[in-house]
Design brief:
three-stranded antiparallel sheet; 7 strands; about 25% helix; globular
Length: about 150
């Protein structure tokens, strides 16, 4: 085979290989999870029964949803939790609605005794969504609600 044919052929193979590898890297690059349609609702306890805090959200990721961690805190407290701190808080219950999306719900029972110690007023909900591939999405203020007596 002549050098004139061999050299351009080798260069062509390298270029095709580089383009294919770049395309594979782009296709396999993960995206962070998304949290949508989130809402928080607080119902104060009564003499007839416990109240509750409920947080609900749709969590999506191209690899699927592993978990959603939830933390409620008084806005005036200046708590501002970090992503690292969120790894050790309570998890919501997530049910798949498709291969890539789950409906996650967190419910916390609130007794009259619990409610007596809660700060009245505005509260924030922080969340940490984790995808099956390990990607995360931290939201310091995913929702707000009001605690009343």
């Amino acid at each position: 085979m002549s050098k004139r044919i061999l050299v351009p052929s080798a260069i062509g193979l390298v270029v095709v290989g580089a383009v294919a590898a770049g395309g594979y890297a782009m296709a396999s690059a993960g995206t962070e999870p998304s949290v949508a349609d989130s809402s928080a609702h607080y119902v104060a306890p009564s003499p007839r029964g416990a109240g509750a805090l409920t947080y609900t959200a749709d969590v999506s990721d191209d690899s699927g949803v592993r978990s959603l961690k939830v933390l409620a805190w008084p806005t005036g407290s200046k708590l501002d939790p970090t992503e690292a701190e969120m790894r050790s808080v309570d998890a919501a219950t997530c049910r798949s609605t498709s291969e890539t999306t789950s409906r996650c719900t967190y419910t916390l029972k609130v007794t009259q005794r619990d409610a007596a110690g809660l700060a009245e007023g505005a509260w924030d909900v922080s969340v940490l969504a984790t995808a099956q591939d390990g990607d995360t999405k931290f939201m310091l203020r995913a929702a707000t609600f009001t605690v009343t007596r």
